[in-house]
Design a protein that fits this description.
Layout (H helix, E strand, L loop, with lengths): L1 H15 L20 H11 L9 H15 L9 H14 L17 H12 L6 H21 L9 H28 L5 H9 L2 H9 L60 H4 L8
Amino acid sequence: MADTATTASAAAASAANTSTDAPPFQLGKPRFQQTSFYGRFRHFLDIIDPRTLFVTERRLREAVQLLEDYKHGTLRPGVTNEQLWSAQKIKQAILHPDTNEKIFMPFRMSGYIPFGTPIVVGLLLPNQTLASTVFWQWLNQSHNACVNYANRNATKPSPASKFIQGYLGAVISAVSIAVGLNVLVQKANKFTPATRLLVQRFVPFPAVGPARDGADTSGPPHAHPGAPPDRHVHAGEDGSPAGAPPAAPPCTKPCVPGSLRPGPTAGHQPLPADVRDRDIPVRA
């Protein structure tokens, strides 16, 4: 029986290696080398690829089954590395690595740009009123908080009160700073109208920045997209994604994505053996 399983695994690996357009497949590992900026950049582009938002339920099931077959050494002949990498990309983009449940589309990493860009545009609108300033700052922090919660480390439960406290703190600080700076700029008599308008365009920088400060992003090794081995992909408690991609000008989102910074290997990290070997059914 052991010889049969070994033969099946070898056949699966041989079939996977027939593809010359992709590196040898490694389950749970990044497709691109993380030792160079270019490799981390390509990995980051893979994470935020919005095409995964349009994957059908049938295609998702096929991707999950293909990875299960590879894992158990029952991969059918002819499957290429490219197909395996594509299957892993689909699964990691849609399913939470801890619960295996679908992440709500607007809160996936692949949805951060298409769903976050309108918010960024709203933050940068000129001649905003007090109400519009409050609304866009609130919406921005609310979206960040939802992304954080949807991609949280579910293996480390955290009380809801802590999340709510961080969310309220982020909203209050962002709104207070944005409104306060706008009022100061409007009352600055020494500024010409053109200078006043230019300064107002930079208000989102200091308004959003403090909402991210003090984020507790430390945690155990995790399999979230874009997360180095010793950090979560998101803060999850303060309304600011620690590794989220900038949706537009860097005034509202982190300037340098964590997956592009030098340091520990970025990407989906292998789960612990006791978690990885469990068969968890996919939930709709």
